[in-house]
């Protein structure tokens, strides 16, 4: 075995180390990359992909900066659409430009514009990163084109020659697509997803696939809906029932089968046998006329079956865990004999469209035998689904309850506080957790639960369900989840869910300081929060300068939501235009409707000022030490 390096090898090694030090030092002096913050994707993979393709509004801004005065507004928009959806736009162009010289002219103009854009975007990245963003087969050509100074005549000719050959070789479309993808990749250096990748929409699995295939630099802060999915994989039947109920409510049951191989036959059979469709369980869909009636009936009945099992198991958990203080969520024992009325707080309310035929008045929270069979079948499938395991570990490995990144604090939800702004002390297992400790505590429970999936009524599963809907859960941020009332009691007051005082207090400077102290943040740090409550949906910046982002969740009708961009010059809130459909997005929709600069730095921020910069500095130190040895 060779143990010693030859003199030559040592020298080569030293040269390599020295050149790495030089490259790393140069990187420190590049401008900091652009970070984008989005949240509440709720399985809307097309909308998510639209945001990513458009650099969360960054690309249209760059097109405007670069081409104003040279391209009309409408042509700027066309160029931006091409960058977002190159394949689709190219097809359209070919159909329109049937005359060959016209098409070639369009291709030449497009090459030039795209190269110019790429050069503009690439100037803040080290070459290595630019190279990684470009399809390998085109790297050499693109590298040459990026370096060329076209103010020299000879270089212009060289450039034209290159592009001309690409057209002649029939590679024009491929080349355009490669350029557009590279621009997309460079528009955002890091994406922060502040919760709820999972939720009401059909394709959270595609969001995960997109992230794992296309993106290297991202992080996730878990949302309450994400917990339902991770909790189900860990064996929590309550998480699973809530999840199935929501899937049925939004006509998304097929996600379970198609993406995660979970066979719903047992619950479908049971539900169709035990329940009849009711108006309060009609699935919430826009295109109801396009959905086969049988599917709607199944959604309706499965939603009822899951709801009733959920209320039963919730009742059991609430009784098992008095420390959760959720007695106000016990309903089944308050139904009258006829099950047509219910008494809450001494007041009698009518039940509308009840479906309590599986509830035994003598023991209302007891799961019936047929329900038990369904539950066992399903929960075993959830913990054993390899795809679900893969995606949930992806969520876990790239996620956290909160993140401190480049000095800012990111999370989904709130830090639970009382009306005076004191951190709520949540008592569990004879210990009290509040503020940052509460977040850390939930992380440890989630980790433990996922490592040891258990289908029995265990402590971890109960805590994960609490994280979904408990009043002191940071991810929920409301006093109660009024699912029972919203299905069965026609009374707006009872149905109301109130936000934790945190959201009101966000307008107070002293309160924001308190949060910053708790999480060890600097004076100029920002707090960015996903899960925008409706009150914040209109103005995402609190007076205390906390920023609320989302991805334009469909619940807020006709509103596109907000993202935040944080680049080397400052921070901008971008109001997204509503995402109507993929088709609409490809050819007409503009991503951003408004941009508001909320912070402009006195001095441009460089890589050296970032967390990544700190890592580089550490690496340089280590390399220097190696050189000295
Ligand atoms: O309208 P739906 O689908 O029943 O959802 C309402 C429920 O969703 C929640 O808003 C939680 O989900 P979000 O995190 O997406 O807000 C609950 O507070 C509420 O009870
Ligand atoms: Mn949420």
From TrEMBL:
UniProt keyword Metal-binding, yes or no: no
InterPro entries linked to this entry: FBPtase_class3, Metallo-depent_PP-like
The organism's place on the tree of life at top rank: Bacteria
Pfam annotation, one family: FBPase_2
Pathway: Carbohydrate biosynthesis; gluconeogenesis
Keyword Hydrolase: yes
First-tier enzyme category under EC: hydrolase
Cofactor(s), by name: Mn(2+)
Keywords from the named record: Carbohydrate metabolism, Hydrolase, Manganese
Annotated catalysed reactions: beta-D-fructose 1,6-bisphosphate + H2O = beta-D-fructose 6-phosphate + phosphate
EC number: 3.1.3.11
Name of the molecule in the record: Fructose-1,6-bisphosphatase class 3
Organism from which the protein derives: Companilactobacillus alimentarius DSM 20249
């Amino acid at each position: 075995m060779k143990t010693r390096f030859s003199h030559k090898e040592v020298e080569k090694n030293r040269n390599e180390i020295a050149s790495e030090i030089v490259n790393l030092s140069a990187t420190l002096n590049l401008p900091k990359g652009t970070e984008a913050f989005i949240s509440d994707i709720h399985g809307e993979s097309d909308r998510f992909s639209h945001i990513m393709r458009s650099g969360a509004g960054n690309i249209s801004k760059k097109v405007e900066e670069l081409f104003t005065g040279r391209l009309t507004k409408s042509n700027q928009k066309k160029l931006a659409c091409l960058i977002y959806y190159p394949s689709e736009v190219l097809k359209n162009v070919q159909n329109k430009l049937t005359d060959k010289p016209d098409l070639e002219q369009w291709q030449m103009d497009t090459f030039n514009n795209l190269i110019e854009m790429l050069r503009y975007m690439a100037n803040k990245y080290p070459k290595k990163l630019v190279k990684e963003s470009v399809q390998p087969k085109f790297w050499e050509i693109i590298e040459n084109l990026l370096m060329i100074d076209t103010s020299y005549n000879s270089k212009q000719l060289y450039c034209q020659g290159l592009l001309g050959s690409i057209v002649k070789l029939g590679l024009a479309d491929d080349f355009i697509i490669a350029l557009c993808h590279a621009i997309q990749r460079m528009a955002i250096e890091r994406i922060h997803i502040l919760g709820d990748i999972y939720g009401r929409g059909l394709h959270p699995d595609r969001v995960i696939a997109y992230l794992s295939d296309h993106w290297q630099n991202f992080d996730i802060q878990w949302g309450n809906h994400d917990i339902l999915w991770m909790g189900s994989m860990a064996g929590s039947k309550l998480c699973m029932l809530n999840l199935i109920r929501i899937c049925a409510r939004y006509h998304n049951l097929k996600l379970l089968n198609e993406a995660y191989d979970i066979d719903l036959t047992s619950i479908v059979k049971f539900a169709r046998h035990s329940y009849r469709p009711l108006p309060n369980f009609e699935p919430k869909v826009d295109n109801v006329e396009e959905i086969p009636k049988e599917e709607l009936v199944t959604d309706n009945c499965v939603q009822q079956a899951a709801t009733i099992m959920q209320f039963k198991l919730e009742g059991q958990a609430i009784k098992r865990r008095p420390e959760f203080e959720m007695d106000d969520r016990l309903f089944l024992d308050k139904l009258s004999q006829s099950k047509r009325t219910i008494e809450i707080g001494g007041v009698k309310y009518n039940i509308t469209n009840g479906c309590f035929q599986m509830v035994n008045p003598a023991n209302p929270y007891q799961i019936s035998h047929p329900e038990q069979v369904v539950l066992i079948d399903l929960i075993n499938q959830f913990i054993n689904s390899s795809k679900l395991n893969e995606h949930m570990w992806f969520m876990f490995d790239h996620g956290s309850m909160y993140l401190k990144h480049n000095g800012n604090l990111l999370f989904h939800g709130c830090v639970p506080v009382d009306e005076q702004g004191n951190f709520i002390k949540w008592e569990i297992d004879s210990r009290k957790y509040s503020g940052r400790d509460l977040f850390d505590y939930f992380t440890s429970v989630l980790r433990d639960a996922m490592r040891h999936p258990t289908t029995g009524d265990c402590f971890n599963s109960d805590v994960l369900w609490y994280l979904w809907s408990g009043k002191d859960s940071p991810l929920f941020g409301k006093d109660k989840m009024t699912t029972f009332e919203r299905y069965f009691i026609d009374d707006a007051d009872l149905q109301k869910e109130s936000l934790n005082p945190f959201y009101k207090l966000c307008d107070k400077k002293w309160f924001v300081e308190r949060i910053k102290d708790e999480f060890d943040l600097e004076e100029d740090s920002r707090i960015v929060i996903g899960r925008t409550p409706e009150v914040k949906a209109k103005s995402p910046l609190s007076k205390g300068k906390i920023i609320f982002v989302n991805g334009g969740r469909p619940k807020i009708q006709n509103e596109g939501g907000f993202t935040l961009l944080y680049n080397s010059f400052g921070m901008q809130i971008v109001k997204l235009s509503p995402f109507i459909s993929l088709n609409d997005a490809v050819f007409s929709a503009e991503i951003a409707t408004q941009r508001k600069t909320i912070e402009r730095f006195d001095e441009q921020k460089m890589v050296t000022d970032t967390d990544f910069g700190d890592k580089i500095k550490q690496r340089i130190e280590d390399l220097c030490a190696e050189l000295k040895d």
